[in-house]
Amino acid sequence: MEKTFYIETFGCQMNAHDSEKVIGTLINTGYTQVETPEEANYVFYNTCSIRDKAEQKVFHRLQSLKRTGKNKVFAVLGCVAQQEGEKIFERAPHVSLVAGSASYTKLPEMLIQIEAGNRRVTGLSFDNPEAFDTPFTRRDNPYHAYITIIEGCDKNCSYCVVPFTRGPERSRTSESVMEEARRVAGLGYTEIQLLGQNVNSYRDPSSAGWDFATMLDKVGSIPGIRRVRFTTSHPRDFVKPIIDAIDSNPNLCDHVHLPVQSGSSSVLAGMQRLYTRAEYMQRIDWMKNAKRSIAITSDIIVGFPGETERDFQDTLDLLDEVQFDAIFAFKYSQRPNTSALALADHIPEEEKTRRIMIVNERQRAIQIRNNANLVGEVYEVHVEGRHQSLGQWMGRTSQYRTLNFSGRDGEDLLGSYVPVRVTRAGPNSLVGEAVL
Ligand code: 5AD
Ligand code: SF4
What we know:
By secondary structure, the chain is of the alpha/beta class. The protein is built from 13 helices and 19 strands. The chain has a six-stranded parallel beta sheet, with helices on both faces. A five-stranded mixed β-barrel has the order 15-16-17-19-18. A three-stranded parallel beta sheet has the order 7-10-11, sandwiched between helices. β3, α2 (52-65) and β4 (73-77) form a beta-alpha-beta unit. α12 (309-322) runs parallel beside α13. 5'-deoxyadenosine binds at residues 50-51, 159-160, 259, 261, 299, 301, 330, 332-333, 335.
């Protein structure tokens, strides 16, 4: 059978980067990537199970392709694969391969088994010491490179499926991270994004013993690297030295994504987040008192079991107090294996919908107000794309704001860093003109 594959990725940046590892591994094994599932003999879905909707999407995809795919091999990778395991074969009998994120270096072996006629192949163990070593990563984005520094999560948030889908925490050695970071810098990348479920709890397993703040500073000091970002953080492990590193190394982006989830200490306790509202606000104070102006973004969950109107008001009040630069709000979704399943007092769907709309409206008003104050300011933009129809370049500031701008005719600015003056501001993006 011709070795052509199609892959579709769902979920977070960790998954996007995992797909880059899978694509590189497959190409190195002699497979060719194609653009549509119809053209492919092997169809891979790299899946997300953070909320029920994300999980359902994959089963819909599998169902809709079932009939067209008589001779195809279907593979489910990622978080749904890890969570559902062999049950996927029952629910979607045309699937032949089910593998979680710690097994991707073993894909060539698993595919040999499939080619030999085996119709039920799994890779679900977390016990793969080579999982980090991905020499064949095929990076999708020419402007910024993802690098995994830690896998898995040892926190036990009561709503969260990730500890089950990505397993216990495993940090990568500092030497291995630095080697990859120098390699991508050598390839011409100027921006690196360090990835992990909880990057703040990074702890170098080698004798160098770096913590996360040290890692940030070292990666930000590699010649050629102009921007370092990181995601995602956990307030409990977000310590002051991280802010000190950002303050002292201008190559570290002035943006922190610090998910709060709720503004109510009693909901935070139910979520087993291991911090109170006051402790979260202390982290916010560190950032607001930094020498640089640090953009802060966050995640919010509404409708966690037992969330009262008063708790919900506490979340709205926290939005006003912090003035986040952006948030991602989600309705609580019940996940398998999680301890919140056992909690009483689930919130009706319509009420969750009401709450998320109020949260989003409140935050939108904050962003409209605060972004208006940016008009007239000049920011350095890393150019990542072009809107042909609008004749505008698209890029991001160090604070991760989207800034679209017009430049001189005939100039190719892709990949470059351009000072841009903001001329207009919307709730989610800015418009400006290159400062020539
Ligand atoms: N329901 C709703 N949102 C969730 N998140 C994680 N688990 C759930 C869940 N069960 C959200 C959190 C997290 C983000 C990645 O997804 O806000 O920070
Ligand atoms: Fe989705 Fe979480 Fe898995 Fe990322 S780690 S793909 S957000 S379930």
